[in-house]
Fold this sequence. Notes:
Elements: H1 5-8, H2 10-14, E1 40-47, E2 50-57, H3 77-95, E3 103-113, E4 126-140, E5 143-155, E6 158-170, H4 172-183, E7 217-223, E8 226-231, H5 250-265, E9 269-278, E10 289-296, E11 299-306, E12 309-320
Antiparallel strand pairs: 1-2, 2-4, 3-6, 3-9, 4-5, 5-6, 7-8, 8-10, 9-12, 10-11, 11-12
Amino acid sequence: MPLPQSALAPDAVTSAPTLSYRRTVDRGDVHRWAVSEVFLTDYADLSADTYLAAAQLPPAHYYFGDHTGPAADGPDSMLLLECCRQFATCIAHRGLGVARDSAFHVTEWSLTLTGDTPLPPHDRPRELNIKAAVTRSQVRSGTVRAARYVLELSLDDAVLGRCDISARYSPAEEAEIVRRYHRRSAPPLSGSLPAVPPGTPVPPADVARRDPANVALADARHVAAGVSAVVAVPSGHRTHFDHPQDHYTAMILMEAARQAALLAAGTGVRITGYQSRFARFAELDAPVRVAAVRRTCDEVAVRFRQDGTVVSEIAVGVAEEL
């Protein structure tokens, strides 16, 4: 999806400041507790709807760098999604004035990778540049309640991919009332999840992982149409639950979709992108069931259900490695 013209205007390019990779941004601006989980290093606003960011991609990371197969040769798609999430979150707080204690709800999220960008050597951190064009989708009484972010990612001036995020923002008190109304109870926090999820975990090699702690699925089985499984994430996962959560986040569901797609298509494929829709929160206290079907040679359709209701649908783009 092309960026809106405002983000590509010549005057925006010529006035772009030089961004730094020397230190991270405030971890509170990207909703992280651990500095080691912050990848955004600088931020600048060019106008009311155009922003720039720098991010450092670490040469090694226990989760984002834990890959086998084609994914091990390039920037992890999950890491790129996380950098985009951090940038959009930073813009929401610094650029749009969204309060720090607001509830964030991602409604749509896509990533398209070019797949042909030459990459720097693995022995040093890669420096990612991100340009964002922002649309305030909903403003109520002067407060931004929803926004859309269209982001262009580049490494060494070569376009790496494009990301599109739509999100809603709710004041903390309002969000709590709505969650309690729909659940009829207060949602539990991630610390209440078992350290070892129930069920039979998927072997790490089957989802192109090395570390069993980074497996997000259990009880997988092949069915006539594809693959079925259950989301299973340990409560102590240092990235997924860097701080307490009251639901399975969009990032967790994206990773579960990636793994389900590899179960359906095989670990020899390269991930080319994601097209996601999040209809409701995936609660922590009921099983989230996953179904993955390879619809075409270049797409695996993944659907998440909880108590019989669809909570998310994610199309995972795949390409056969030659």
